[in-house]
Amino acid sequence: MKKVKSLMLAATVLLVSAAQAQTVDDIIAKHTEALGGKEKISQVKSIYMENSVEVMGNTSPSVETLVQGKGFKSETDAGGMKFVNTYTDKGGWMINPMMGGSDAQDMPDEMYKSGKNQIYFGGALVDYAAKGNKVELLGKDGNDYKIKVTAGTNESTYYIDGTTYYVTKITSKGEMMGQPTDITMTFSDYKKTDFGIVIPYTRSADFGQFALSYKTTKVEVNKEIDPKIFDKPAK
What we know:
By secondary structure, the chain is of the alpha+beta class. It has helices spanning 2-34, 38-42, 109-115, and strands at residues 46-55, 58-67, 71-78, 81-88, 92-95, 105-106, 133-141, 144-151, 154-161, 167-176, 179-192, 198-206, 211-221. It has a single domain, classed as Clam (outer membrane lipoprotein receptor (LolB), chain A). 19% of the residues lie in helices and 47% in strands. A hairpin with a 3-residue loop joins strand 2 (58-67) and strand 3. The N and C termini lie far apart (73 Å).
């Protein structure tokens, strides 16, 4: 009798796990469709964006360049100083005048791991298995589905609106000035581009000690981009 109960319990656990996995995949499939659909996303080769960035009451211009699966580069001019974060499929580098001058430095490993999925339009969720990521449904927070995404040793929690299936928020752990910190990114004002993909035109990043707010003013999809822009400059 005990053996039968154990088998029934095991079967129930397997069924619940299968249902949960199906639910996660269904949510991610709807999220992918909301961004434009798998076929349209597969046609994205590059994305170029111009933004206005607000930091502590000051507004600065910013440019972001993505070559799908190869690299992502963010360049911001603030108060005469240039800040650069670059992620590639092999590693990352940065220029941060607040942390070591104007020379390009190798990106800290944890920072690279936490931002690596930016080299893909759709981030960590679209085709998550092919990228080596793992997902787990954590339940709901109001109308948002909570999905834990594990990419290597990095873990993030994605909040997906249950109506639009857009990502509204991502929370993760990181470092700021050598100290551990909670990072919260929020996304809103989703619009369809002329190409047919949908992106958030308003984004914010809260690092605890300070916050950034991005407003996108221009988007070009499949613009010709020289991949050398992702090469780390020589000193």
